[in-house]
Every structure is written in structure tokens, then in C-alpha cells.
Amino acid sequence: MTEPRLPPATEIFVTFAALLRRNGFAIAPEQTTAFLAAIALLGPTSIDDIRRAGAATLAPPPERLATYNLLFDIHFGVSTAAGFSETDQQDDVVRLQEEGDGAVDPDLAQEQNESGLAATRAEALVARRLSATSGGNALQRLARQARAKLPKRRGHRRMRARRGSFVDLRRTLRESVRRDGEVLSLRRLKRRLRLRRLLLLIDVSGSMKARTEDNMRLAHVVMQAVPQVEVFTLGTRLTRVTRPLRLKRREQALLAASHLVSDWDGGTRIGEALQAFLSAPRFSTYARGAAVLIISDGLERGGHDALREAVWKLSLRAWRVSWLTPLAMGPGFRPQTEALQAIASLVDDIVPGGSDEAIVAHILSLAQRRAA
């Protein structure tokens, strides 16, 4: 006797529940059955009816509702930009002001910049699909060792310790009651250690096109390995890609990020992008006390004064600022571009960033370095 099979029309709804389960949602079999029953009862006339039926029966937590909507739009092929509403995109994307010097670069649609070595100030809105190929040994090592080796800071919560700066009065008094009020020793507390926030600023301009996919995959690995990570892309726009990269499945996370970022392989205006980051209060707070990694070649076409001022302000807020450039080929690297020469004295490190191995080695060595 053959087992009963579900109708083919229900397969897309069952696989959606499985997709949520793979991304960390607690979905019971009864909820999947209730989801199918709700769809049959409603007789949905639009995709929003299915979305609301899923929210009612699958019950995503309120704090993960944005992730639920993102996965829903990816799975059901909704044409909105990877599940982000127009308001969300306006909140996460900052378009830089146009330069006023009257200079115009050739249209990037005609000049394709195949080599990726030339910097330009022109804005080109390009859609790009990122590959989700598995990372090499370097990314696997980063995923395994990130929690243990990333820099830590002292938190506000306290924990028991043999030696500490605080007296555990409650435990001391409790033990004194057992000894008829006699206090033999003072119990101690110390502040817990927490992972320090990591801020990744990734250059996605045309001069970095050879490293863009690798850098985005690395950002996704870091995002999944540790909490308190923020990721932004820099080009002719400043885009926060933290939310899409929180998705566990790499191909879905990179697909969502590729839809959200619209200035792939475009112009290079790092100084203005950093100033836009610092001018937005909700963005600039991410840099306070953080280990900041700027992954860029520094081929800046904007004003170097703007770049220098932005890096200086960033260094005042951050715990440490590292500039990782593919132009650096070894520990004895000396900046040759005007942009890197302008900020060399303001950053703590200018290190190689042309391979996953070099970037991972630097990230895992941050805890051994002192704050600026």
C-alpha cells in the first residue's frame, strides 16, 4: 500500500515551512498543517493573504518578523527588492551628494571597466548576482575560531570569581548565616567579558570588482559566527547589508544583499561614504568602541581632505581602525596612492587584503593588538 502524498499545489507551502525551520524558526508539524488549512479556508486572492496566513499560523517572533518577510519574498518570488519595503530601503541606503566640480566620467555602461583597476566617480546602478560557492579553508577556520579569538571588552554584568574588583555581598552574607554570623572571607565578582562589536566597511566599486564576491562571503561567515557585527558597502552609495546577511543560508543571504545594493562596480567615493556613515546617528553609534575593518584599495576619486576628516572622526569613536587593501603585498608595504598616504597616520593598520587568508589572519589577530 503506497503512502498518501500531498497534492502538488501544496508543495511550495510545505517547503516554505521547511525553509523557515532551516533558518532557525521553531516550526512544529502542526503549524505547517494549520498553515495549509488557513490557505484552503481563505482561498487567497493575493500574495499578501498567504503572507498573513503564514504569520498567523507559523507565528514568527516579533523581533524576527523582518527575516520572515525576507524569506517569504525570496521563496515565493515576490518582485520587491529582496523582501525589503521601500521604507526599509530608504533607511538602509544613503545616496551620496553629487560632486560639484563639473567633471563627468564616461558612462560606465559604455566603458565597462573590465580590469577593475580604474577608479571613477560616476554612479552606475548595476544589478549583480553573487555566487554562493563554499569558502576555502580560511573561511572555515574563521567560522571555528572567531568566538574564541576576536577581541573582547568588559561588559556591565558581573560574574563570580576568585579575585575581582567587586564584593559579592549577597553570597558573603548567605555563607555567614551558615557560620552563625561569622564572615571568614569576602566573595568576589568581576565584570563579564563580551565580544567587541565588529564593523565591516566593504568597497564594492569597480576597482574592487575582483574581490567583491569573496568579501561578501567573508562578511556572511563573520555574521553567522559572532553577534554584534555590522556590515556596510561603500561605492557611490552607503548601504547597510546587515539584515540580509543575517540569513543562515548563504545563497539566500547573498541574493538578498545583491538586490539591496544597487551600486556594484560603480564609482569610488570613499570619503563621502564615510562622512555619510558618520552623519547618520544610528549608523555612527555602530562604530563606538568597535573594531573597524575597511576593505578597500583606496583608489579614491573624491577629495582627500574629506577622506582624511572622515577617517579621523572614525578613529576617535572606534577601538581600532584597520585598512585592508589588495594593493599591499607584504608586511613592508608603503602606501603609494594619495588617498592611503593621506590617512596612513590616522589608521592603526594598513595590511594586505587581497585574499581570504590575509583578511582572516588579520581578523583573528585583532585580540592580540592593543587599542589605538
UniProtKB/TrEMBL annotation:
Q: Which SUPFAM superfamilies match?
A: vWA-like
Q: InterPro entries recorded for this chain?
A: UCP010256 (IPR011195), Uncharacterised_CoxE (IPR008912), vWFA_dom_sf (IPR036465)
Which sequence ranges form a coiled-coil region, renumbered to this chain?
A: none
Pfam families according to UniProt: VWA_CoxE
Q: Which domain of life is it from?
A: Bacteria
The name under which this protein is listed is VWFA domain-containing protein
